[in-house]
């Protein structure tokens, strides 16, 4: 704008908050799935038998456990990030809403 003033579209901010809440909800499913639906019990990839050690199965199981932990950490981080962004967006929306109400009140002759 030529006057150097900005206009904030509160309905767009509202939409962002709604979409973030939807993403957070979906991340809750991913968080639960990564923790509880990716369990691989020991021996599921093969077991050692008398006289023979199946080293690869143990290595795969350890690699799976490490990757599972890594995925859980990633999902947790993204969830926290979205939650933080959503909280800040809600606060920003509220602040702009308050400012808009104050401006409207002052333009109508209020204090």
The dominant shape is rod-shaped
Estimated radius of gyration:
26 Å
Which structural class matches the secondary elements? mainly alpha
Strand portion: under 5%
H/I helix tally: 2
Region (Disordered): 92-111
Structure, explained:
By secondary structure, the protein is an all-alpha fold. 72% of the residues lie in helices and 0% in strands. The protein has two helices and no strands. Helix 1 packs antiparallel against helix 2. The longest helix is centred in the last third of the chain and has 53 residues. The model has no long low-confidence stretch (mean pLDDT 84).
How are the secondary structure elements laid out?
Blueprint: H1 10-36, H2 55-107
Helix pairs in contact: 1-2
Give keywords.
single chain; 111 residues; mainly alpha; 2 helices; 72% helix; rod-shaped
At a glance:
This protein is mostly helical and 111 residues long. The chain has helices at 10-36, 55-107. It is rod-shaped, with a radius of gyration of 26 Å.
